[in-house]
From TrEMBL:
Originating organism: Ornithinicoccus hortensis
Lineage of producing organism: Bacteria, Bacillati, Actinomycetota, Actinomycetes, Micrococcales
Entry GO terms, CC: cytosol
CDD domains per record: NT_GlnE_GlnD_like
Start and end residues of each Glutamate-ammonia ligase adenylyltransferase repeated domain: 80-316, 586-819
InterPro entries: GlnE (IPR023057), GlnE_rpt_dom (IPR005190), NT_sf (IPR043519), PII_UdlTrfase/GS_AdlTrfase (IPR013546)
Protein name: Bifunctional glutamine synthetase adenylyltransferase/adenylyl-removing enzyme
Positions of the PII-uridylyltransferase/Glutamine-synthetase adenylyltransferase domain: 341-481, 844-984
């Protein structure tokens, strides 16, 4: 180094790795070029991918072409462009050393700009023909390579000089494709020059793959299909023979190595029958093959087909044949499944050692983006011609503008595609070798990072950028590529997809809509205009109509969808969720056309639709989490009214979660009952806390409170139509405290008012008629009052009711002592005597005679009818009263658990237990499904066939089986009644008689 030259530290800071060697070469250049500003040259070199490589090649270039000294010495844009190229590509550096006469033109920023106004491929083709001139044979092939690499270097200079390489990518990829097309055009002419019989033979080359899409890499196979023909049909056979020789010559001219290297392999494997088929076919042969034999992947490949060389008219005729087939391919049976399976096969065939480094084929790579875009394009492009583009980024933009892909998702995929392609380009550019693997060495990663502007810890930074995009691409690919919507759209006809008014009316009638004209009005309201909202709904509705029709009331489903969409359609997430998130749209259509109860809940709280798009949105929420949610919601409000409203709002959302999960099959019957019970428990816990705070304020409470669940609540068997049967218990904090009873009553009154108050959420009825003395007794009692009452006055029916008593909210210690108090009553020592058994039977007989609603058919009533819920429960409860003292398994509030214990103890035969269980489960489910269908309680099998069909469909039965529902229930109940009469009445019902005490539940 000279005294005034840069130090080793300065060279290291700008990116040189071998500072000693770099210093020596800079001294050498300074000695040879007196006008050289060494410091400025170092700064220029410090901006390139590999400063060491750039400097070494610059020295070699000066030695090969001393006349370039002025360009190397002078600080200029041209020199910056030169060193950028030399630092990024050792292959193109070697080319310029062998052909230094190209340096000035290649690096001149004006050179390419001057040709930009003409057709890109035509301009470069003309230059390539000028380079080849009159040469023939090997000389022509050499000249073709020299001209090709000159153009390639010029493209690379523009690429490397761009401020943002990802923004420049489409232009670079298109220029590379145009250059390949120009080379093929020259190769076709050279082939004709070699072929003496080529006169009168039509011959053209169709570009496929990245060449067809004008998105080619620096080094890649060039995929093509060859066509041949003759003006006279009689010469067709000769034309095919000559065409085959021309195609073979084109492959050789482009792919063979000469003293000037090679261009790239010409790959014709995408032709009909692949490598097994003839190299060249006629137009008629192509037509027959694609119409009769072509596989799904071939139509996907044809998506990028375009004319590239030879007879353009012949190519246009061929495209006129294949393009309609391409855009109708998605209607083939199993099209979407086949494309998805093909992507999986491609991924599985990637060598395991390479999978994690693959920019192209691996998870999160270019193929994920390309397959996603192509599948969406092929499915939706059948009816929407704006989507028909051979170029990935153009097609992605069209999908975005058409509302098929969300703006954010499209932007993320666009950004990722550009980065992945630029990484691929920079890696290939270095040695002009075909590769799609990320390097592993620190030096290669450093060079790659620096080529994309990374300077500090370039190797780590570029890997982090790549990995981040890889993860995002995989996420979006899995969401877009495997959309259930795609398969559904592919199954529709083109007219159905377009949803014209006339076609819509016909289709609506065929699908089973009762009012097609009214449905069309809803469709017009949803889809009119040019807003993105209307656009997305135009894509969704053709498919959703079929899903609405799968429900029992498609008209109501479409109306509800319009109501919800009118409320949520302008939100940023609603329609995007339906389009993008798994099966959200299908689930919503199913729910809306199946359940008035769900529709009512959704209309009250439409934003809860988001639950259908969340993969975990319909998962069961554990009881403790429910309690926390409701209590926390209450705690965020000081006023009682606001706190109760918050509690009811959370309860409404959680109820809707259960309803939706039930309708889409995420919960079974037992899980529905358990979820509804846990939700009511949590509601009472939170409500009791709010009521206590409202009454007591900042003072210390005078009482401890507790709520006891009775009936189906106590048995953890709540259904949608169930009231919450409860009893209220208090205990003074200090015995004898004046006002304790009044405070307890005030708390209970506040609780009942707060939880059953008016509001948009569905109300819950707190029913306390099972308390001591029924409606005649006090609403709330102290623990001692309960004790005294049960010691002196308790009736048999009350002991039976206590079999299902379960503390659900309030003070835990009070709950424990209350449970200890009632256990001797419901599980009496030694069981109940024969007189008490007769009393229970008489009471049951009286209930059968008096409590069935007027006009109700005892054969079809789910609760009080023969073989219904009451029958099964009384059988179980009678056995509990008689045997629970000696069988711990019977000490449960749950009907089915107790029935299982009776079976295991041998007190009920397995066959009888199965009959009773079947009846109880079916009755419970029919009651729940009746509420889901009609939005209100259904106590009997509906007589109206449409209601029966709706209930049957929610049960998962095939269409048309609703008429069989009544007979199924009668048969089930009849068998259960026979078991009840044997087990409860001991073969015959006991005549009704007045019990010792009246049953307050009648009042």
């Amino acid at each position: 180094m000279t005294a005034g030259g840069p130090t080793g530290g300065a060279l290291a800071r700008v990116g040189f790795s071998d500072v000693r060697r770099a210093g020596g070469m800079l001294q050498e250049l300074s000695a040879a070029l007196p006008d050289l500003d060494g410091a400025r040259l170092v700064r220029d070199l410090g901006m390139v991918a590999d400063p060491d490589l750039a400097l070494l090649t610059l020295v070699r270039l000066r030695e090969a072409a001393p006349d370039l000294g002025d360009l190397i010495s002078t600080a200029s844009t041209q020199r910056e462009r030169l060193v950028a190229l030399l630092g990024a590509s050792t292959a193109l550096g070697d080319h310029l050393i062998h052909h230094p006469e190209q340096v000035r033109e290649v690096t001149d920023p004006k050179s390419r700009a001057q040709r930009a106004g003409r057709s890109a491929q035509r301009a470069v083709t003309e230059r390539m023909f000028e380079t080849v001139g009159d040469r023939t044979g090997r000389e022509a092939m050499d000249a073709l390579r020299v001209g090709y690499h000159r153009e390639l270097a010029e493209i690379a200079v523009e690429d490397l000089a761009a401020e943002d390489a990802t923004a420049e990518l489409p232009a670079v990829a298109a220029a590379l494709a145009d250059l390949a097309g120009a080379a093929l055009e020259v190769a076709v002419q050279l082939a004709r020059d070699e072929e003496p019989e080529s006169e009168g033979v039509r011959f053209s080359v169709i570009a496929m793959g990245k060449t067809g899409g004008r998105e080619l890499n620096y080094i890649s196979d060039v995929d093509v299909i060859f066509l041949a023909g003759a003006d006279d049909e009689a010469d067709e056979e000769r034309a095919l023979r000559v065409g085959a020789r021309l195609a073979t010559a084109v492959i050789r001219i482009c792919g063979q190595s000469t003293a000037e290297g090679s261009l790239w392999p010409v790959d014709a494997a995408l032709r009909p029958e692949g490598k097994q088929g003839p190299l060249v076919r006629s137009l008629a042969s192509h037509r027959e093959y694609y119409q009769r034999w072509a596989k799904t992947w071939e139509f996907q490949a044809l998506l990028k087909a375009r004319h590239v060389a030879g007879d353009e008219t012949l190519s246009r005729e061929w495209l006129d044949v294949v393009e309609p087939l391409v855009w109708s391919a998605s209607s083939r049976d199993g099209f979407v499944d086949e494309v998805q399976a093909m992507r999986r096969r491609v991924e599985q065939n990637v060598p395991k050692a390479e999978a994690d480094r693959q920019l192209k084929l691996g998870p999160g790579g270019l193929r994920d983006i390309e397959f996603s875009v192509q599948l969406l394009e092929l499915v939706h492009g059948r009816a929407d011609e704006t989507l028909r583009s051979e170029t990935t980024l153009e097609a992605l933009a069209a999908l975005r503008d058409g509302g098929y892909v969300g703006r954010d998702d499209a932007a993320a995929l666009d950004s990722a595609y550009r980065l992945l392609r630029v990484l691929e380009h920079r890696i290939q550019l270095y040695r002009l070798r075909r590769t799609h693997l990320m390097p592993t060495s620190e030096a290669e990663l450093r060079r790659l990072g620096r080529s994309l502007g990374e300077r500090r810890d370039a190797a780590t930074a570029i890997v982090q950028r790549w990995r981040g995009q890889q993860r995002e691409v995989r996420r979006l690919h899995e969401r877009l590529f495997y959309r259930p919507l795609l398969s559904a759209v592919a199954r529709l006809s083109t007219d159905e997809v377009r949803l014209s008014t006339d076609a819509a009316k016909d289709r609506l009638g065929a699908l089973g809509f009762r009012d097609p004209a009214g449905a069309v009005r809803h469709l017009e309201s949803l889809t009119e205009g040019v807003s993105r909202r209307a656009t997305i709904q135009r894509h969704l509705l053709p498919v959703m109509l079929g899903w609405f029709a799968d429900g029992a009331d498609p008209d109501a489903g479409l109306l509800a969808f319009r109501q919800i969409s009118d409320t949520l359609g302008t939100t940023h997430w609603y329609l995007r969720m339906l389009r993008d998130e798994g099966s959200a749209a299908e689930r919503l259509a199913h729910v809306l056309s199946s359940s008035r109860y769900a529709v009512d809940l959704l209309i009250r709280s439409p934003e809860a639709v988001v639950l259908l798009g969340d993969p975990k949105g319909l998962s069961r929420v554990d009881p403790e989490t429910l309690r926390t949610r409701l209590v926390s919601a209450a705690g965020r409000h000081e006023g009682a009214a606001e706190a109760f409203q918050a509690v009811r709002t959370v309860r409404a959302r959680e109820l809707l979660r259960v309803v939706l999960a039930d309708l889409v099959g995420e919960l079974d019957d037992a899980q529905v009952r358990a979820s509804l019970t846990a939700l009511t428990d949590a509601l009472l816990e939170a409500g009791l806390a709010v009521a206590t705070r409202a009454v007591v304020g900042d003072e210390d409470p005078l009482v401890r409170m507790m709520v006891v669940g009775m009936g189906r609540l106590g048995g953890a068997e709540l259904g949608y139509a169930s009231d919450a049967d409860v009893m209220y218990v208090y205990e003074p904090v200090v015995e004898g405290t004046e006002g304790a009873a009044e405070q307890a009553l005030a708390i209970v009154t506040e609780l009942r008012k707060g939880l059953t108050g008016s509001g948009p959420d569905p109300a819950i009825e707190l029913d306390a008629t099972l308390r001591p003395e029924g409606k005649s007794g006090p609403l709330v009692r102290s623990l001692e009052s309960y004790r005294a009452y049960y010691d002196r006055w308790s009736a048999g029916w009350e002991s039976q009711a206590l079999l299902r008593a379960r503390p659900v909210a309030g003070d835990a210690d009070l709950a424990r002592r209350f449970t200890e108090l009632i256990e001797p009553l419901r599980w009496p020592e030694g069981g109940i005597d024969a007189r008490a058994v007769r009393e229970v039977r008489r009471l049951k007989a009286r209930m059968e005679a008096e409590r069935l609603p007027r006009g109700a058919d005892p054969r079809t009533h789910f609760k009080l009818g023969l073989g219904g819920l009451s029958d099964v429960e009384w059988v179980v409860q009678l056995h509990q009263l008689r045997h629970a003292h000696e069988l711990p398994g019977l000490r449960t509030t749950r009907t089915l658990d107790a029935l299982q214990a009776l079976e295991e103890a041998g007190l009920v035969e397995a066959a009888d237990a199965a009959v009773l269980r079947r009846s109880w489960v079916l009755a419970s489910r029919l009651r729940d499904v009746g509420v889901l269908w009609r939005g209100r309680p259904v106590d009997s099998v509906p007589s109206h066939l449409r209601d029966a069909e709706g209930i049957s469909r929610i049960l998962g039965r095939a269409p048309g089986l609703g008429s069989k529902l009544a007979e199924e229930w009668r048969r089930t109940a009849r068998r259960a009644r026979q078991v009840v009469e044997r087990l409860f009445y001991e073969t015959a019902p006991v005549p009704a008689a007045s019990p010792r005490r009246s049953d307050p539940r009648r009042s």
